[in-house]
Structures are given as C-alpha cells and as structure tokens.
Amino acid sequence: MSDAPPPDADPDPGAVPPAPTGTRGALIRAGLRLFGKTGFAATSTRELAEAAGTNVASIAYHFGGKDGLRRACVEEVARRFQAVLGPDPAPLPDDLPAAAAHARLAFLTTAMVRFLLGRGDGEEVPAFLLREVLGEPVLLDIVYDRVIAPRHADLCALWGRASGQDPDSPAVRLAVFAHLGQILYFRLGAAIVTRRMGWDGYGPAEIAAVEARILATLNAALSRGDPP
Amino acid sequence: MSDAPPPDADPDPGAVPPAPTGTRGALIRAGLRLFGKTGFAATSTRELAEAAGTNVASIAYHFGGKDGLRRACVEEVARRFQAVLGPDPAPLPDDLPAAAAHARLAFLTTAMVRFLLGRGDGEEVPAFLLREVLGEPVLLDIVYDRVIAPRHADLCALWGRASGQDPDSPAVRLAVFAHLGQILYFRLGAAIVTRRMGWDGYGPAEIAAVEARILATLNAALSRGDPP
DNA sequence: GTCTATAAACAGATAGAC
DNA sequence: GTCTATCTGTTTATAGAC
Description:
The structure is a homodimer.
Chain A: H1 22-38, H2 45-52, H3 57-63, H4 66-85, H5 98-117, H6 121-134, H7 137-163, H8 170-188, H9 190-197, H10 204-221
The structure holds a DNA duplex (18 and 18 nucleotides).
C-alpha cells in the first residue's frame, strides 16, 4: 500500500474529507475497532499492525506513534459523522410547525436507534467514542466541537419548536441530553439489556421494540399522546 | 496493617459482608478509584500500591495478582450496593396504590440522581462499573446477578404498578432501562453535559435542574401531568 | 504480613536494509 | 513506503530477608 501522511491543514473546511485509504486507512479502522473493543492502553501496537495487515513500524511512520493513531481515529469518527449527517445542517425554517418539528425529531430518533443498535459502524464507533469521553479530556475537544455540539444544537432547535420552549434554554438542552442518554444506554448497556430481556443480541424485532419505547417517551415528554 | 485473605465461602448469604479493612481494603479502594478513572490496563500495580500506601508485592499476596484485585473491586461494588439498598428488598404490598408506586419511583429517582451526580462514591463507582460492563464479560456476571438484576426487578414492579402494566412485560422492562439510561448518562457524559450547559461541574443547583428534568420525563412517561 | 530486589515478559519507538 | 531486527524502558510476578 502507498500513502503519505496527510497535510495538516484542510484547504476547504466546509467539505467532508475523503475516507482514509491504504495502510493508513487500515490502521485507523483497526484502531477504531480495537481501541473501542478493549481500550487504548490494553491494545498493543503489534495487535494493531496485525489487524491492519501491516507491521509495527508503519504506525510510527504514518502517525508518529500510538498516540497519533488515536488522534487520527478521533478525527475519523468526526469525519464519519460529517459524512452521514452533512457538514452544515440547514437552519430551521421560521414557519416550521410544531408537529413537523416533532415528526423530524421522531425520524432522527429512529435513525439514531437503528444506527447504534444495528449492524455496522454502530458497534464500534460508540464504544470508541465513549472510551474517549471517559478518558483523555484532550481528545474530547475534537469530539465535542465537531461531533456533539453541532448536532445537539440542531436537536435543541427542533425540541424547542416542537414543545414551544426557547431552544436555547437550559430546560431544552437538558431535555435533549436526557433523550439522547436513553438511546445511548441501549448501546452501552447492551450486554445488560439483552440479558435481562432474554434477547440474543439486537435483531430487527428487538430494535423495533426499543424504537417503540423511546418514541413513546419522546411523545410523552413533548406532551402529545400519539406519534405524529 | 494486618489482614489475612478472607475465606471463600460466606456462612450467611443473606447478611451484608463488612467493608474490607487494612491493606486489603486500601488496595480495593485504590483499585476502584484508579481503575474507574484511567482503566484497568492503564493502571500499573505500582500506582495501585502507592495509592494504597503499600508495596507492589502485597497485591499478589492479598489477591493473587492484578486480576484478583479487579475481581475484588467488582465484589466490593456489589457489597456497597447491598449495604446501601439492603440485601433483600421487601416485596410490594398487593394493595399499594398506583400513586404511591409513582411517588416511590420519583423518590428512588431523586436518590439515584443525587448519589450519581453528588460528591462521594458516585464519582468512582459508576465509572468503574461502566468500564467493567464495556470490557470483560466474565466480571459482568457478578455485577449483573448481584447489583443490576435485583434492582431492575424492583423498579419494574413499581413501574408496572404505577402505570397499570404487567411488571414482567417487555414494555415495562424497556421503560425502566430507558429511565435508568437517562440518569446514567448525566454521570457518564458529565464532561459533555457540563460543557454544553456552561456549568462548572455538578453543584446543588445543577443537580436540582437535572432532577427536575428526569422527574418531568418520568411523570410524562407514566401519563401523569404533575408530580405526585 | 510487609517489604526490597530481581526475574522474565512485554511495551513503544527506531535504525537501517530494501 | 514497507519491513525486520533491535534498543530501551516498563510491566507483572516472585523469591527471599525480616
């Protein structure tokens, strides 16, 4: 494989960067998976190199060291979120009715539940992200600024419109966090939830049940008896 | 300090074991704090010994090795939960009104929020617990059987009574998990929440705001407009 | 029971051939 | 760019004095 280390500056900050390829990309994907699964400290550079189909020295070559690979993984998470959700969400139209905002919140909720509980990135990205949030506060800056804060602000705007409250009020911000916390818990506590429910992992039927529960709470919190 | 390794069998399984003391107890407390803060793999035996005010060899002497200390920490978490919540919760009276069940749920919710967000064990125990749940599934067994399952069953009984649903139904079990997930998130995502809210940690006013939010969701989910 | 000294394995980083 | 071999520091576990 043949890739040079990337330039430090992005000439067009609005555009979504392309997915990393080659040895560099393989190492990042291995890092995302192994760091998320067993943790940063518990993952050796030899394991990373083997999982990526390369040698230990390439980690230092591409990222300067194990810490550099970690940072690259954080940036890759930010990039994937940008790629899925779009770089700059459109501002809310002034005349958006409350019911429409409610419906969009329900739609985004469903999408998040399916992403987090279904097969795919949802298994490794949240585990990695959570370990970063629990651990080094330095890397949290990247996660916060590029992944969390913009999306949270979007959801607050919708929640405010749907509930008739000020979207910048502490009450709305907390409500959105509580709502997101519910969803995240079903991924983070998956081992516990599936055991207690007698489930063998999250299949389509199980995901539907979780979706129904979270939408019910959303509708209740927004003071509406029925889904829009 | 002078303590022998404890006997393997507990002669009275109903009683709550006493808190570990001496060097053994100091090592467990150090493990709980450091494992929770930086993770198991990232914490060295030298750090543990220093934090406990003893030497590295005592870890092998008391627990057989670093893994043994980890296991002892898991059991200490289970013990603390038993000590605070009581070993065997009383079964729900048959004639408990829905409003009383709702009130008790609200009371337990407030207690959990204050425990998790306030100063004290709430800072280290959940972090430790979460890392265990994310990692080794072997230790999850102890946590699940002795900490999570009994408490979850209690809450399901209350939720069923308060909402008029079957407490053993999947819907109630999921509702309780979603409710707990909200609460846990404010501890796990504390770094994110406080930053977004512009808070400097969780003080009394901040805890009250979170409490209010979670009780509001609880009341809405139980289809009641106002707190009991 | 506590502690020092040490052993054996492993970590991440790097030099240098290709 | 890739890879092997190696350097240097640190890890856990243990032997043995007290």
